[in-house]
Amino acid sequence: MTFEIIKKNYDRGLWNKQMVAVAVNKGVITAEEYEQITGEPYGA
User: Fold this and answer.
1) Quick one: pLDDT band at residue 43, thresholds 50, 70, 90?
2) Rounded CA separation 34/42 (Å)
């Protein structure tokens, strides 16, 4: 799983913010990448 795949899945509606947050918790993406994907700060 990469940032690009997660972003594409989020943009298509296949992933929600909670799923993206799990990727941050697992160290797959950073909190900054979470914000790039969702448009909201991580932990908001």
Assistant:
1) confident
2) 6
